[in-house]
Amino acid sequence: MTRRFLSVGFLFVSSATLGGGFQNGPQSARLVGLGGAATAYARDASGIFYNPGILGHLDSLTHLSFGGLGTARTTSFLGTDSRRQTLQELAILPGGYFYATHPLSDRVKVGLSVNTPFGYDTQWPGSWEGRSLVRSASMHTVFVQPTAAFRVNENFSLGAGFIYARGSLQRERSLGQFDDLGAAVSYKASGSGIGYSLGMYGRTGEDLSFGISFRGPVALRMNNGSAETVVNGGIGNGRSTDAFTTRVKLPSTLAVGLADQMTKKLLVTFDFALTGWSSYDSLNFKFKDTSIPSVRQGRRYEDAMSFRVGGEYTASNNLLLRAGVSYDETPIRDEFISPELPDGNRLGGSLGVSLGLRRVMLDLGYGLEVAGKRTARVNRTQYQAPSIAGNYRTLVHTLAAGVSYSFGSKK
């Protein structure tokens, strides 16, 4: 029973930042280059994930777009008491995307998107001073979204999509009350959820277009959780496992975007988004063994805004150049800062290029975000969010490469 309550304690500690600041980069190499300003960008099939209304205004060709992306967070921690600096181990979070669109008629089009919009991978050295809080933590998600859109007239279209999501979690921390560094507790869980996406896209003239979209929240129900405690290297009776269920609430997003064809060759895009992180008010753990009490953990996350501006310059019919800047607020309050996912307000810049080879476009994008310094303090009364005193500094690198292909005949 003692080890079972150690598992409960681990879940209390390790989830301190679950749900905060882990959106996994723009879901397309083209959009990475634009800084993520996608709500009114109607030149690529990837727009259907960010605004289903864009689908209605794509041309009558069949479009395919697919590729891979990798995100790496590099974080350093400087302990307030120890004055020791620790660097996270390099861990690249893999991701990918696939988009397909097809016209059923002049006004009705359908599409499919598959992508990885949320996730992170944190790896600290096994002997670092905060190992009793977290040694490693990761989350992976996959969204599948069939989408349909209707073009109301030449200047206005509506779209909607159904979202099926899968997600998995893994956590591990050391048991600081034991001399054995191998004494640890870990858990893993996976589950699924459903959601929806709505959007509209319009044009006020030949040069100016706009988009409004809303992606609803997705609750991942994880009913197969397993918390494992290992003491003395797992020898004899040093190992115990307890089953639990939980639910992870992924946030909603409301976005408004503009795109302005400022010159014949230059398109400028702008996005404002409000992400509903406040829905992640608490995280509850219910153990299947009823002798272990359920745990309710207050998170009190805040809704967060983001601003994105991107530019695309048509150097020639076969060469497109992109650049973007972005600013993202963090939803994590100061009292909930944790080494699992240190996050701060982020200022970013990006570059991208597309090279045409007949009907195929090769896309490449790179983005760098610099997070503001976060200072964590130990609050003995805040037992729901244990921390270690010190300063965190974080950089986020995103690299994406993909291929875009169109075929059919324009009507």
From TrEMBL:
PANTHER family: OUTER MEMBRANE PROTEIN NMB0088-RELATED. It is found in: Cell outer membrane. Belongs to the OmpP1/FadL family. The lineage of its organism: Bacteria, Pseudomonadati, Bacteroidota, Cytophagia, Cytophagales. Signal peptide: none annotated. This is Outer membrane protein transport protein. It is a multi-pass membrane protein. It comes from Hymenobacter endophyticus. Keywords: Cell outer membrane, Membrane, Signal, Transmembrane, Transmembrane beta strand. SUPFAM superfamilies: Porins. It comes from the Bacteria. Its main location: membrane. It holds the Pfam family Toluene_X. InterPro entries: OMPP1/FadL/TodX. The keyword Transmembrane applies.
